[in-house]
Amino acid sequence: MLRDLHIQNLALIDDVWLEFGPGLTVLTGETGAGKTVLLSALELIMGSRGDSGQIAAGADKAKVEAIFEIRMKSSLSPEELTISRTMGANGRTRVLLQGDLSSVSALQKQIGILIDLHGQHDHQALLSSSRHVEYLDRWANTDIAPLMKAYTVARREWQQAQRELKELEDMLARSLEERDAGRIALAEIESVNPQQGEDDELRERLPALQNSERITELMNQAQDLLRGEKAVLEQLYDLDTILEQVGAFDQATHELRQAANEARQMLDGIADAVSEYAAGIQHDSRVLEQAFDRLSILESLAKRYGPTLGAVIERRERLTSLIDVAENSDERLFNARDAEKTTRVTLMDAARNLAEKRKVAAKVFIERLSDAAKDLELGKVRFDIDFAELPFEQWTANGSEKVEILYAPAPTVPARPLVKIASGGEISRVMLALKSVLGGADNTNILIFDEVDAGIGGATGLAIGAKLKSLAETHQVIVVTHLAQVAAYADAHFKVSKNFAGDKVNTVVSPLGEDDRVIELARMLSGSDSETAISHAEELIQIAQSATAPMK
Q1: One-character DSSP codes across 326-379
Q2: Rounded to two decimals, what is the model's pTM?
Q3: At 29, phi and psi to the nearest 5?
Q4: Contact, 5 vs 41, CB < 8 A?
Q5: Nearest to 493 by CA among 474, 519, 462, 458
Q6: Residue 549: count of CB within 10 angstroms of its CB
Q7: Are 474 and 527 in contact (CB under 8 A)?
Q8: Strand, helix or coil for residue 81
């Protein structure tokens, strides 16, 4: 349940705090008062894409905060879920989830499943047949979900097998000349047998090979400094003797003698390393010549097949694969075709199982939808679902069939696509009927409707109010409405209005008590608070209260 909503600097809203409760909550107000801004705030909390243009004029950021009460199966009392989203004028968004830095995608995952927000755009979604299979699957989730998962896995595996087969066929379709040219290039590269990083290693070695005599001379000088007649090591031995003699009189020199010994040992190791290095210096001109020749060959190979030696080695691997495929094409092609055929059969079986289960679920689904529609004064309407088999090449992520909800406004009228037969008022009621059916079948806790009563009035409005009230027995329902007949069923009523202070205009939201609520319904009915309008408003509330049991 959404418990608290705090909005700052969003459109015309300066600072609004709202406290929501269970049951049916309605938001009413004149057109343009700012009701849709409240829905925009909820969409931001749900993880919708923010727009810096929504920030109030003169403000550098907008902020929306919400607190949800989530009842966990393992807990008797509800747990709080706190969310904060800040939108800067620079386009940056900051999300806090339970006080920790989070992301918009995290909101979509965690909050999107809690809220079903139905706006005017959902009318268009209902008219789009591509969405109908989602409605059916959502309603029959327990039965459909494992079959849908099996179909998805099978489709992914078939697509991979098909992709590998095509790549192999494309490779085999290359001209014989290209393969022959590849063999020639491969032979040349393999004759050189370049190793990764070999050219860089040679370039590092060449200076030492070219200057071997000078290096030998310098290393001899180093050895003389370390172990010659007046070498550092000999002097350290003398130092040790001196410190030993002083130590006979003063033990304080013990640490100095120890440090001198450590220095001598370190220098002794350096002397050994210098001797070893000097012994390994090569003066053979043939070694230098071989290094130059090898580097020249590698650089020439890189120019032809590179541009780098690493690229040459990669090309060798590609050519080896190409030649190997060409020489073993029959076996490889057989295996690839067999894999494609096997995964195709698996996919077709998964699609058939999914389609059969959907047809079984559809029978009950359309019965529930028809019952819900009758409660909304749609008369003896009839629904059906058409399953049109698609060619294999046109199968989608949703399955092998096009699923479309059909609508017949009367028993004698053939069921046809909603887009061709339903009026605006009918679409609103069909959508509400669909939401009520889906709402009872899934785990969505909060249902939000934006002007679901568009194009409707009179007794039909009362029917819609009653249906929303019924939904509110199992869900938290929040409704933006222009119909007094719908607002009469509310458990909580907020009025959205504009406040004018000098040149500044801002939106305010006020909870209405019983008396104010009657006046607001009267305004919605006639545009005034005359005695007749107030009497009519009171009558509407009585009708609503007598039609449904009060919230406990």
Answers
A1: HHTHHHHHHHHHHHHHHHHHHHHHHHHHHHHHHHHHHHHHHHHHHHHHHTTT--
A2: 0.62
A3: 155, 165
A4: yes
A5: 519
A6: 9
A7: no
A8: strand
**CB 86, CB 62: distance < 8 Å:** yes
State how far the Cα of 38 lies from the Cα of 437, in Å rounded to an integer: 26
Q: Which two tokens mark 71?
A: 């009842």
* Strand-pair partners of 83: 66, 97
Say if CB 299 and CB 291 are below 8 A apart: no
Tokens at 230, concatenated: 């007046």
Is the CB of residue 419 less than 8 Å from the CB of residue 124? Answer: no
Sheet holding 416-417, edge to edge: 382-389, 401-408, 416-417
Tokens 């070219």 — which residue?
210
**Residue written as tokens 């009657």?**
518
Task: Find all residues with CB under 8 Å of 316, minimum gap 6, and list them.
Answer: 186, 189, 190
SS3 (DSSP) at 513: coil
Q: Between vectors from CA 220 to CA 216 and to CA 226, what angle results, nearest 5°?
A: 145
What's the rounded Cα separation, in Å, for the pair 150 and 425? 39
Closest CA to 524 of 15, 18, 28: 28
Q: How many whole angstroms separate alpha carbon 430 and alpha carbon 130?
A: 17
Task: Enter the tokens of residue 151.
Answer: 């179909």
Q: Any idea what the Cα angle at residue 547 is, between residues 541 and 549, rounded to 5°?
A: 95
Burial (0-12, 13-18, 19+ Cβ within 10 Å), 416: middle
Determine how many CB atoms are found less than 10 A away from the CB of residue 238: 9
Closest-CA residue to 511 (of 33, 17, 7, 15): 17
- ∠486-491-496 over CA atoms, to 5°? 65
Give the Cα separation of 291 and 288 in Å (integer). Answer: 5
Per-residue pLDDT of the chain (552 residues; tens, 9 = 90+): 999 999 999 988 999 999 999 999 999 988 777 888 888 899 899 988 888 888 988 899 999 999 998 876 555 667 889 999 999 988 889 999 999 999 988 888 888 778 877 765 565 667 778 889 988 998 998 899 999 999 999 999 999 999 989 988 887 776 555 677 888 888 999 999 999 999 899 888 888 788 888 888 888 888 887 777 667 877 888 888 888 888 888 887 888 888 888 888 888 888 888 888 888 777 777 888 888 899 999 999 999 888 899 999 998 988 887 777 677 777 888 899 999 999 999 999 999 999 999 999 999 999 999 888 888 878 788 899 999 999 999 999 999 999 999 988 888 888 888 877 656 667 777 888 888 888 766 667 888 888 777 667 777 888 889 889 988 888 899 999 889 999 999 999 999 988 887 778 888 999 999 999 999 999 998 888 888 999 999 999 998 888 765 443
Closest CA to 449 of 415, 484, 486, 412: 486
Residue at 220: amino acid letter: N
Q: What letter does residue 174 receive in the DSSP assignment?
A: S
3-state secondary structure of 399: strand
